Fold this sequence. Notes:
Layout: H1 4-19, H2 22-62, H3 67-84, H4 89-100, H5 116-129, H6 131-134
Helix pairs in contact: 1-3, 1-4, 3-5, 4-5
Bound molecules: zinc ion.
Zinc ion binds at residues 13, 17, 65, 70, 73.
Amino acid sequence: MKNTDELAGTLCHEVSHTIHHDTMTLMEKRQKIAEREIGATVLLGPTRAQFLAMLLLGKLHSLSYSRDVESRADLTGSDVCAGAGYNPWGLVWLFQDFQNADMGQVPQLLSDHPGNQNRVDTLERHFRSNPSVFGQFNADPKSAAAISVPKNASEVFLR
Ligand SMILES: [Zn+2]
């Protein structure tokens, strides 16, 4: 992330998944699959169950958020950012950075290549149709405040 608004945009996007209960919905889906997996172990015995478990693990892996869910979190995220006084264009800049980045370097957390341009378009439409909320913010990334970390800040690694 190149500036404070991109960082804020990321956090606002993630918070919006919680606001929309996306995290709970995904967990419930995963829970249902896990229950089926346990049922399969009981019914089929360990060998066939292991085979099924492998299939189900693949299914679990594919159960990330859909494009629609991501786009919704982008929109609410931009609302949250604007409400908190951060520039909601930070999210747009982030996706534009992804678009231009070497894909090997982009974190999978937010990136949805080639959906990035779609997400930018959707956000820009949202900004245009709500000028009273978004009109005050500068679309130019050069206007953004650089991320500054105090020199004596300690590094904390979360496990
Ligand atoms: Zn997301």
